[in-house]
Amino acid sequence: MVRVHFWGTPEWSQQLADSLSDIAECRFGEEVDPNTEVLAKGRPAEEEFATLHALKAVVIPFAGIPVQTRELLASRPHIKLYNLHHNSADTAEMAVALYMAVAKQIVVRDRNLRTGMWSEGSFMRSGSGGSIRAAGKRALVLGYGAIGRRIAKACDGMDMKVTAIRRNGPFDDRIRPLEELDQLLPQTDALFVALPLTTETEGLMDGRRIALLPETAIVSNIARGAIFDESALYDALRSNRIGGAGIDVWWNYPKADEPCFPSNFPYHELDNVVMTPHVGGASDATEDDRWRALADLIRGIEDGSAKPASAELGY
Amino acid sequence: MVRVHFWGTPEWSQQLADSLSDIAECRFGEEVDPNTEVLAKGRPAEEEFATLHALKAVVIPFAGIPVQTRELLASRPHIKLYNLHHNSADTAEMAVALYMAVAKQIVVRDRNLRTGMWSEGSFMRSGSGGSIRAAGKRALVLGYGAIGRRIAKACDGMDMKVTAIRRNGPFDDRIRPLEELDQLLPQTDALFVALPLTTETEGLMDGRRIALLPETAIVSNIARGAIFDESALYDALRSNRIGGAGIDVWWNYPKADEPCFPSNFPYHELDNVVMTPHVGGASDATEDDRWRALADLIRGIEDGSAKPASAELGY
Predict the structure, then answer these.
(1) Do A282 and B129 make contact, defined as CB atoms within 8 angstroms?
(2) Which of A193, B11, B175, B184 has the smallest CB count inside 10 Å?
């Protein structure tokens, strides 16, 4: 019996424990048994590794592995690192929802019509009809993991021309290597960012790359804020050097529920931005999916079929 | 040479005339030549039919044939009625954008985050995570013409379970007859309305049918407001008997650019509504597409290949 420790609501903790009762001894709550072999936790502290002598696997119970956790594990190669993709549909859908909200000016139009105004305040260039048609436009999906693949499929469903970028092959006409990013950006109408945050991807979308986008391009970011240069993206949006952005992930986060703006730059004053508070991963279906995915993963760890989140990252 | 009259911007009027110069004599502007054979106009007046003796076809330069125009033409069977589907992608995309905006609470979340609030004001039931996952949900596309088919394809792209309803067959597991509407509504998570407005569809979604929807259902209407009972839909939304609605088409329209609320009921006070001012058909691509589609249609009318908008309606 493998000894597993995790955190969850009482309901799903019990469901998970029951569903794994043939192979695992599950514990949950604050006290972590020193004999724990599999620990499901997003941000384990360095001290924990010193006390957990039997630890063989850490499971991040979501997709975006924190950089610190990745670094802590890098120096402990005997502990395998896994993550969960149970909510990739939710996150991909948020990317599409944000893109569509910008392309159709949903927020500005809703705000105006609520005051009886039918034709006020377009942030788009004249001749646009106030909306961008997705069909026929060129979508670039940056990061082709579980989320990126779903974004690409949704874009296919809207007859967009889809290209995706990932780091490792196989490549084909549609899936291109990261090295081609600079060539592809000038041909991109809709840029969907679905990369993990790593030391490599931090700041990848800097001012120079943002400037490669066409002036009507719309950016959708559901990955991590720090993939973009905060100041350069703000400037491009404020000066209409790009068309707009839908942003779910930020540079500032609230501490202890204090209200806070999501950036040091006033993104919240821009009409060509649609902003959501890092909620892409949550939906009516995620909590139930999370324990099921965790149960499947723990079985996979035990029978050797589970694929670790590669230290090299296969996005 | 067929004599054609239409209205358009100077640029595309000339492009249309040039592209048809081998088969048509095109005129545009206020004065309609009494020898006009093909008239492209959304709402021709009854008097015009008295003066236009040679008229053999009316082209509605958009998809939604006005009920009055349909009635005027019904008593003149020698004049064929056509409509244009050049912007079906735009309208279908608006249906998807509105559904996604409701499902992900885009408007409320954007409004809150602009004031620094990260977790305020959900209109959804607790346990929803604040978002509805589209994947796996049951979409019902009511009306399966050019727009409905595109909505269905976009829903497929998001892994929704899609059923469509149309009046005339062929039917299959996915495409069902209008007679099954009442059976299907209780199994519908996302209702997309893409019907033409006719005497038959006016008020089709009355209070009884709205009450058949599950309490988490989201409605998206890009067709015509009058397909819904204005009061019953408002009541269902206000009392949370359904989950929400994205609405582009209304019961009230502004006269001469005066501000006006889009309904006699205060839809504009509801957080579970996303509202846009009947803009689904317009985008950066529509004006160019419109004259091309009109040129193709006029060629089709002349060579007999164009399909009239059936008086019976094949939606």
Answers:
(1) yes
(2) B11
A86 is catalytic: no
| Residues of A (197-226) whose Cβ lies below 8 Å from B | 216
- Nearest by Cα to A280 from A227, A222, A228, A220: A222
User: Any idea where the domains of chain A sit in the sequence?
Assistant: 2-86+284-303, 88-275
Which chain A residues are within 8 Å of B133, Cβ to Cβ?
89-90, 93, 283-286
Tell me which CATH code domain B88-275 carries: 3.40.50.720
Chain A residues touching residue B124 (CB < 8 angstroms): 284
With cut-offs at 50, 70 and 90, classify the pLDDT of residue B310. low
Q: Is A279 at the interface with chain B, CB within 8 A? A: yes
| CATH topology match: A2-86+284-303 vs A88-275 | yes
Q: Is the pLDDT of residue B127 over 90?
A: no
**Cα–Cα dist B234/B246, whole Å:** 12
Q: Residue B307 burial (CB < 10 Å; 0-12/13-18/19+)?
A: exposed
Establish whether A278 is a catalytic residue: yes
Whether residue A313 has pLDDT greater than 90 = no
Catalytic residue among A86, A150, A224, A290: A224
Complex ipTM? 0.93
pTM of the entire structure?
Answer: 0.93
Is residue B57 within 8 A of residue B80, CB to CB? The reply is yes
B224 is catalytic: yes
Q: What pLDDT, on a 0 to 100 scale, did the predictor assign at position A159?
A: 98
**Residue position matching structure tokens 């821009």:** A270
Q: How far is CA B134 from the centre of its chain?
A: 22
Could you give the CA distance from residue B167 to residue B113 in angstroms, rounded to a whole number?
Answer: 44
Whether B252 and B260 have beta carbons less than 8 Å apart is answered as yes
Residue of A nearest to B255 (CA): A118
Q: Write out the E strands in A147-284.
A: 161-166, 175-177, 190-193, 218-221, 244-247, 273-275
CB A115 to CB B159 under 8 A?
no
Catalytic residue among B166, B224, B290, B302: B224
